[in-house]
């Protein structure tokens, strides 16, 4: 029996950790609360920065717990502790927090847009979801003139099968 208890220790520790994380990020949904997600533009250029802004309206009172910026097929790209306005996760390539100390407006920066960021995005607080935004990523191409100077900088839309060169 003692051997069984020793073998179960890592599983029990993991379960307790998950329970603690859940309890600190659990939020009670406030009736009448709506979320709105906006992007800094309709498209993003690979290698540039891009910003999403999530606004929580209605419900009154201060927010507590976690606000998530979510990309389709990815659990969470960036999570903000709504009570402290600080970034809760440390996912490379993304930063997020409150906008200028305002506790109901949050932002997430994509620090260097990649082709994988071209996806459907939303924000979530408690059981409320924002509208979804489909982000299109453009690739920057340089055309070189006959004297090897850059003559034109253009962008073009890519599809998931294309590669930006």
Descriptive tags:
single chain; 165 residues; mainly beta; Immunoglobulin-like; four-stranded antiparallel beta sheet; 13 strands; 15% helix; 45% strand; globular
Q: How does this structure look, described?
A:
- This protein has 165 residues and is mostly beta strands.
- It has one domain (32-157): Immunoglobulin-like (Sandwich), CATH 2.60.40.10.
- Helices cover 15% and strands 45% of the residues.
- It contains one helix and 13 strands.
- It is globular and about 50 Å long.
Distance between the termini: 60 Å
Principal-axis shape: globular
The H/E string reads HEEEEEEEEEEEEE
The amount of helix comes to 10-25%
Please report the first level of CATH classification, the CATH class. Answer: Mainly Beta
What fold name goes in the CATH topology slot?
Answer: Immunoglobulin-like
User: Helix count?
Assistant: 1
Query: Which parts are unreliable, with pLDDT below 50 for 5 consecutive residues or more?
Result: 11-29, 148-153
SSE class: mainly beta
Tell me what portion of residues adopts beta-strand conformation: over 45%
User: Mean of the pLDDT scores?
Assistant: 76
Let me know the CATH homologous superfamily: Immunoglobulins
Looking at the overall shape, the CATH architecture is Sandwich
User: Total number of β-strand segments?
Assistant: 13
Our Rg estimate from Cα atoms comes to 21 Å
How many domains comprise the coordinates? 1
Largest sheet: 6 strands, antiparallel
């Amino acid at each position: 029996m003692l051997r069984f208890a020793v073998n179960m220790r890592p599983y029990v520790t993991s379960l307790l950790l998950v329970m603690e994380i859940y309890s600190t990020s659990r939020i009670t949904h406030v009736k009448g609360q709506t979320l709105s997600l906006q992007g800094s533009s309709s498209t993003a250029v690979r290698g540039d920065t891009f910003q999403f802004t999530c606004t929580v309206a209605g419900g009154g009172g201060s927010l507590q717990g976690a606000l998530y910026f979510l990309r389709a097929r990815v659990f969470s790209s960036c999570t903000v502790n709504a009570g402290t306005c600080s970034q809760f996760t440390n996912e490379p390539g993304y930063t997020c927090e409150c906008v200028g100390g305002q506790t109901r407006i949050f932002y997430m920066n994509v620090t260097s847009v990649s082709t994988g960021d071209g996806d459907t995005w939303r924000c979530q607080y408690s059981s409320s979801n924002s509208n979804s935004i489909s982000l299109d990523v453009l690739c920057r191409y340089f055309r070189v003139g006959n004297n090897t100077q850059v003559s034109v900088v253009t962008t073009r839309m890519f599809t998931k099968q294309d590669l930006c060169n």
